[in-house]
Specification:
Blueprint lengths: L4 H10 L3 E5 L27 H6 L1 H19 L5 H11 L3 E6 L5 H4 L5 E3 L2 E8 L5 E3 H11 L9 E2 L5 E2 L2 H5 L13 E5 L8 H13 L2 E5 L6 H12 L4 E4 L12 E3 L3 H6 L4
Parallel strand pairs: 1-2, 1-9, 2-3, 9-10, 10-11
Antiparallel strand pairs: 4-5, 4-8, 6-7
Helix pairs in contact: 3-6
The chain binds adenosine-5-diphosphoribose (APR) and zinc ion.
Zinc ion binds next to loops.
Length: about 270
């Protein structure tokens, strides 16, 4: 492991066609909590499973009630200097592609254009019946007006900013339906147990085939869809550098792990 700032500077100077993979750690300074701690253990409640969302109305109620309360924090979050550093790298022509596991769209808000949201995007919802797409923001008003009794202090506060809502509160929660066909709405993200659209994966793999190195920023790599880029990079003989304060699943195959947050590591690198 190394924690030398200039190690990152040298790495960036030596590679002009990077694939960058980011995770929740890069958005933590923007106020959006990570899922796991520095040991890779879950910090909070286990995530919603794709299958449960499809088959259980109680899961959909829990999801949409928590989302009604939690969406404003995501909508109002701002990109931080690490997002901006990666945007500058793109502007300098040094990025083949930025693949993010985050669903917060902060890279795009920082001005990055060459971005693939590997796990989808929270600012959009999709109808499972007719496929219509709608903005999540347009739904917020509907959710709030259909559930006027739900407020920011409903239930119990949780450390991740979410709220634990009692079953009777959830039972009365009115979940939204598609404005076009009254079908079931789902956020345009990949839940656990869901699959990443093959075309999205193919684009990421094709970009990795063209890249000259893989840089991972702010991810524990506990989820296979992120970790597999590291495996493939090594199969392709590409250098793999990880910037992350916590342990990651790919530490044993990385050429270098800089044990710092993205903000710290990029702070003194003149991008
Ligand atoms: N503050 C806190 N943690 C940070 C910071 C920071 N400033 N910078 C980096 N980290 C590190 C944590 O130590 C942790 O190792 O960021 C990492 C975040 O790891 P995870 O929470 O597991 O996030 P991520 O790797 O993006 O998770 C991948 O798992 O839950 C699913 O779909 C979800 O996209 C997510 C995927
Ligand atoms: Zn519909």
């Amino acid at each position: 492991m190394t924690d030398s700032h200039d190690a990152l500077a040298h790495f960036l100077a030596a590679h002009s066609n990077l694939l960058v993979l980011t995770g929740a750690g890069i958005s933590a300074p923007s106020g959006l909590p990570t899922y796991r701690d520095e040991n890779g253990s879950w910090l909070y409640r286990k995530p919603i499973q794709h299958r449960d969302f499809l088959t259980r109305e109680s899961t959909r109620k829990r999801y949409w009630a928590r989302s009604t309360l939690g969406w404003p924090a995501v909508r109002d979050a701002s990109p931080n200097e690490a997002h901006c550093a990666l945007q500058k790298l793109e502007k300098k022509g040094q990025l083949e592609l930025l693949v993010t596991q985050n669903v917060d769209r902060l890279h795009q808000r920082a001005g990055s254009r060459r971005v693939i949201d590997l796990h989808g995007r929270l600012d959009r919802v999709r109808c499972l019946d007719c496929g219509a797409l709608a903005s999540r923001e347009s739904l917020q008003e509907t959710l709030a007006s259909a559930n006027p009794w739900l407020s920011a202090d409903s239930g119990e506060a949780r450390p991740d900013g979410d709220r634990d809502l009692p079953d009777d509160t959830l039972a009365r929660f009115e979940i939204p339906s598609c404005a076009r066909c009254t079908g079931v709405l789902i956020p345009d993200v990949v839940f656990f147990g869901g699959s990443i659209p093959p075309a999205r994966h193919d684009s990421c793999n094709a970009a990795l085939d063209r890249a000259d190195a893989l840089l991972v920023v702010g991810s524990s790599l506990q989820v296979y869809s992120g970790y597999r880029f590291c495996r493939r990079a090594k199969e392709l003989g590409l250098p793999l550098v990880i910037v992350n304060p916590g342990k990651t699943r790919a530490d044993d195959i990385a050429d270098m792990r800089i044990a710092q947050t993205a903000a710290e590591a990029f702070a003194s690198v003149q991008v």
